Amino acid sequence: MKIGFIGTGDIAEAVITGMMRAELPIDSIAVSARSQHISSKLAQEYAKVQVFDDNQQVVDAACDLIFLSVLPQQAEAVLTPLQFRNGQEIASLISTIPVENLAEWTGATGPITRAIPLPPVAELRAVTVLSGPSARLEAIFDQLGGVVVTHSLDEMNALTIPSALMGTFFGLQEIIVDWVGTKGVPEPDARRYLSSLFLALAQTGAGSDRTFPELRAAHSTPGGLNAQIFQVFTEGGGDKALTEAMDSVMNRILAASAKQD
Length: 261
Ligand SMILES: NC(=O)c1ccc[n+]([C@@H]2O[C@H](COP(=O)([O-])OP(=O)(O)OC[C@H]3O[C@@H](n4cnc5c(N)ncnc54)[C@H](OP(=O)(O)O)[C@@H]3O)[C@@H](O)[C@H]2O)c1
Prior knowledge:
8-stranded mixed β-sheet; binds NADP nicotinamide-adenine-dinucleotide phosphate; ProC C-terminal domain-like fold; 2 domains; single chain; alpha/beta; elongated
């Protein structure tokens, strides 16, 4: 399989690293010379990665599958001049841009699927959301941590929201570690303790068939400390603030999609 990436930034690097680590049956990976610190590092590390000076050369070298991994605001200008091969498959990692716009800008006749890989695909540890079925992409991302195939734009948009919680994930831990620090605990000790606790809890969730309400109940003695924190948190509007934050991002995604129409 010959593949390529238009845009060689952080997420392209993570996907390529995961693909190489998983030893997928890939013959070559063409990347553009942009983000030179990343493209040259990838070419140095992996003999299968070839760097090309212009994007059309990347498209031409990637007979089977081309990943789009530029920023949304760069997409139209980058894609419009390119000539895609008849039937060439496209995987767009670009957030918020609908398939219809990608089809118009690329003039592509092959399948176009949107994908939301997250940085831990580099360690084969993140499930990737796909906008629809694609045997090739499902086979690839299955090896990089797993796949969820969605069946509507609403489903795809909804699953975009958790991927926007990565900053909040660390932000919550920042608040907790700061609070623990006010009681005199050194930051490295608090961070190490909290990280290992959250890691263990995430592993419990990932390895369990129980729902989150069931897991919360299982980790909260009635009247105990865990139950108290959750009660005070929700009574103080913590759940409402999180829901509002997710609604606001959903509104932004819908507005961006509407603007592209
Ligand atoms: N990062 C994530 O966790 C993540 C997850 C899922 C989806 N995404 C999506 O993936 C896309 C890329 O995100 P990112 O975080 O990887 O961004 P990034 O690091 O800024 O990467 C963007 C890449 O596009 C390149 N580029 C810009 N103009 C170009 C052009 N004319 N021709 C070729 N390449 C060009 C940039 O090169 P220069 O550096 O040389 O300008 C850079 O390599 C975005 O649409 C984002 O929404 C990101």
